[in-house]
Amino acid sequence: MLKGFKNFLMRDDVITVAIGLVVALAFSNLVEAFTKSVINPLVAAAQPDTAGLGLGYQLGAAGNEATFIDLGAFISAIIYFIVFMATVYFLIVTPYKHIQQRRGKSVFGDAPATKACPECLSDIPAEATKCKFCASPQRAAA
After folding, report:
1. pLDDT tens for residues 56-105?
2. Is the pLDDT of residue 47 over 70?
3. Which member of 26, 27, 43, 125 lies 3.0 to 4.6 Å from 72 by CB, making a disulfide possible if both were Cys?
4. CA angle 43, 49, 51 (to 5 degrees)
5. Prediction pTM value
6. Are 67 and 61 in contact (CB under 8 A)?
7. Total Cβ atoms within 10 A of residue 24
8. Dihedral angle, C-alpha 27, 28, 33, 39, nearest 10 °
């Protein structure tokens, strides 16, 4: 049982995904610091009359953070997401696709075209005439 678990953990995909997650989490801190220290002040400067609360609308008493709709934080979160996902794509996904392509594997591509098996209606590749089960000798003998 433990040998099977070890084999599962040592597969290339699991290790690659684990490394990708570690890199993504580490990079997440960098992007968060960028949005908090660079983007947030720029967005807050777009509406200077909010008593230092940033870009948004005050619903209650002036200066009360509890009644302030903070659009600047939402804009920063969108920028954070776009920068983070672009970095993950260009630094992790694209090289991974290239490496797997050199190994002869296709990843993150379109699914191959399928059709229904005429006998059992299971999905089969578009070029096939029957699925493996329907074409097997045991099935023909039955």
Report:
1. 777 777 767 777 777 777 877 788 788 878 887 888 778 878 887 888 77
2. no
3. 43
4. 90
5. 0.49
6. yes
7. 16
8. 110
